[in-house]
Specification:
This protein is mostly beta strands. Helices cover 14% and strands 39% of the residues.
Length: 221
């Protein structure tokens, strides 16, 4: 027997011995895996609806997390359970009275659930009016105190002041703000110079008002 013949027989023996390993995966297991991949969440529905929230729920499919798709947005909400509270969000068009479509699927892939179309209840869907009469109350070595007339809105509002370092400055629900001197606020304080200020309101839905009048103020320190 030549060396080439012995080599060929050795290779053949290895291939024959390896064949049962390839066929060792039971057909039933493969079918079960395929069935798991083909199943998906079912019965997507709204549990409750208000002007601020849409609470969704669905039947579990497998385990793990879920991707909740809304409207035509390709980026889903990642959900760890089988319920999710969709809250108003002006940035993505979710405001009181607006209508949206939802679908959910396993975060590991698989088919999408049924499509659900649901609307937020009617509510505040307009921005606040612009704050008016922005003016200086005090200008001394401690800084500049600004004040303004309140905005009008269906819901509560907070205010933001622009024009100083670290703007916007959060004023909360107050209608005045101290823009402190650098000596009192080493990070965001003002130093001698001229500053131009304005203020805007934001309601608790997330709508921003137009800006107030602007004023230029010289701070002498």
């Amino acid at each position: 027997m030549t060396f080439r013949t012995r080599l060929w027989r050795a290779i053949t023996a290895v291939l024959v011995a390896a064949t049962p390993l390839v066929a060792a995966v039971p057909a039933a297991t493969a079918a079960a895996d395929n069935s798991t991949q083909l199943s998906g969440p079912t019965n997507l529905h709204a549990v409750s609806v208000t002007d601020r929230d849409i609470v969704l729920a669905w039947n579990r499919s497998g385990s793990g997390s879920y991707d909740l798709f809304f409207d035509n947005n390709p980026t889903p909400f990642l959900v760890s359970g089988t319920t999710f509270d969709v809250r108003t969000n002006v940035a993505i068009g979710m405001i009181p009275g607006s209508t949206h479509t939802f679908q959910v699927r396993s975060a590991n892939g698989g088919p999408l659930s049924n499509t659900l179309t649901v609307s937020f209840a009617p509510g505040d869907h307009t921005p606040p009016t612009a704050p008016a009469n922005l003016h200086v109350v005090r200008n001394d070595s401690n800084g500049i105190v600004l004040a303004w007339d309140p905005s009008v809105d269906e819901s509560s509002v907070i205010y933001f002041v622009d024009g100083a370092p670290c703007s916007p400055r959060h004023a909360g629900s107050a209608t005045s703000l101290l823009v402190g001197a650098l000596s009192n606020d080493p990070v965001c304080g003002i130093s001698p110079g001229t500053y131009t200020f304005s203020v805007r309101a934001q309601d608790d839905i997330g709508f921003n008002s137009p800006r107030s009048n602007t004023i230029s103020v010289t701070f002498n320190g």
